[in-house]
Amino acid sequence: MKTTPARAYAAFDKTSPLRPFDLQRRAPGARDVAFDVHFCGVCHSDLHTARSEWPGTVYPCVPGHEIVGQVTAVGSAVTRFKAGDRVAVGCMVDSSCRTCASCKDGLEQYCDNHGTVYTYNSVDKHGAGPVTYGGYSSHMVVDEDFCLRLAEKLDPAAAAPLLCAGITTWSPLKHWGAGPGKRVGVVGLGGLGHMALKLAHALGAHTTLFTTSAGKAADAKRLGADEVVISKDADAMAKCARSLDLIVDTVSASHDLDPLTNALRRDGALVLVGVPEHGNPAPAVVNLIFGRRSIAGSLIGGIRETQEMLDFCAEKGVVADIERIRPDQIDEAYARMLKSDVRYRFVIDMAPLRG
Ligand code: NAP
Ligand code: ZN
Ligand code: ZN
């Protein structure tokens, strides 16, 4: 098989710092887009995976699924991209199914046949490596159907986090009808949380941020929060009872859900998007029954809705608040993310890897 070398940063086990790794990318096939990676966001899922906080990490592991780059070559059947175009890739690079109801509905992440090929740590059906290698790398080759268009007017580094943090919060906001007249809560002001706030605000909803970090209150207001509640303050939480239609919970660590379900109005939904290593304590059933409230979950977003979100962000000028880092600062970024000290997404500038 013809391949081309790429430079990357990889985790080699669950405890050591990430370090340089040389890998092979497949030569572009007829439907493939080859591109240089310019920027890649750092998602907490990268950390969970690199450190085996979730089961199934195959090492070496090259994380990264908030990717913006520039096309270098395209296969003969590619119609939507040409060399020189800007391109964006998120959490999925393919589906081996494309025929089930979910794939046909443009919700490939819920493929009924488990066909979703994630950007990293999924079996690589092309065989360039044992598993797919993500965006912490110099260049990539991705099926055109999983490549997205990103408007030139958006800053490419600040737009990179839209590809996971953006779509993962956009999808539940849209599905549960966030908009004018709706009261939306967001839990946790990290990468996902700050995008949830910006997007809910841009959609016209009234927004409340729940945070453990009192020092983030002023930023939250600037990012679109109408109200800020310190979630460690039991009295303040109790005062929110029955006030919200929807809560998007982005917390990356195990936490009590009861003060949140209690903040829902009748028929409200608490939507979990955070995937903590150790799960959350079982919620009180009475909070659900008295109020017909629900707890739900939501996984990233489909390709179609990702493009809709990118177009909405271009129209409204919505991007992430970012701190740019070099590839050799990834571990420092992980350490700060674990201390909730991220304002509000680290984005790796890949120039040093491209040479
Ligand atoms: P992040 O930037 O680290 O933000 C997480 C935030 O959660 C922190 O900034 C902090 O906000 C809050 N938090 C942390 N520990 C907490 C605790 N013990 N109790 C209460 N709040 C706490 O992480 P992220 O990249 O946004 O990702 C968040 C989670 O979503 C991760 O578990 C990630 O794997 C998951 N995720 C899921 C999907 C999906 O498809 N469902 C997609 C992407 C990511 P405050 O300082 O404001 O309290
Ligand atoms: Zn992510
Ligand atoms: Zn499918």
Structural classification: alpha/beta
Give, in order, the helices and strands: EEEHEEEHEEHHEHEHEHEHEHEHEHEH
Described by the principal axes of the CA atoms, the overall outline is: globular
CATH superfamily of the largest domain: Medium-chain alcohol dehydrogenases, catalytic domain
Quote the distance from N terminus to C terminus: 25 Å
CATH class of the largest domain: Alpha Beta
Unique ligands: NADP nicotinamide-adenine-dinucleotide phosphate, zinc ion
Task: Present the secondary structure layout.
Blueprint: E1 3-10, E2 19-26, E3 32-41, H1 44-50, E4 67-74, E5 86-89, E6 92-95, H2 101-104, E7 116-118, E8 139-143, H3 156-159, H4 165-175, E9 183-187, H5 191-202, E10 206-211, H6 217-223, E11 227-230, H7 234-239, E12 244-249, H8 258-261, E13 264-272, H9 285-289, E14 294-297, H10 303-316, E15 322-325, H11 330-338, E16 345-349, H12 351-354
Parallel strand pairs: 9-10, 9-12, 10-11, 12-13, 13-14, 15-16
Antiparallel strand pairs: 1-2, 3-4, 3-8, 3-16, 4-5, 6-7
Helix pairs in contact: 4-5, 4-10
This protein binds NADP nicotinamide-adenine-dinucleotide phosphate (NAP) and zinc ion (ZN) (2 copies).
One zinc ion is lined by residues 43, 45, 65, 91, 164.
